[in-house]
Specification:
143 residues; mainly alpha; 0% strand; binds zinc ion
Length: 143
Amino acid sequence: MTPPRTRPRRGRPAVFNDAMQTRYLDAITAGMRLGEAAQHVGIHSNVPARLARKDQEFATRLADARAAGRKTRADNRPHGEAHYNNDDCRHPDCAAAARKGRARRRATTARQPDREQHATIHDLDPPTPPKSPISLPLLLKAS
Ligand SMILES: [Zn+2]
């Protein structure tokens, strides 16, 4: 059975109607990934992108929702060095974690020269001088 239509139209049926678009965009705004949000409203994940190519208004709403969602996810991430580095969080906890991380890496780098002291030294044979049949007699004559 085909679903009832509000107006006659050609081509693909409206699988992604206004109510679904709103639910989809709300889910994105709340921090859901695109694929998850598509699954959430029950559409294939390529449907919104296809609509965004045809519908500039939807494209703008989607872009806004994605930006808001990125911020939501960043705000929900736990404080730590990654939060400081990736999300520009300047919470004291993040700043402290980043400081500690940097100090640890510096200490690791400073220890590196130790390794050179334990390096194996290989004795190489001295290079053999090239044999030259004429150089010696010439040298003897010259002296
Ligand atoms: Zn933070």
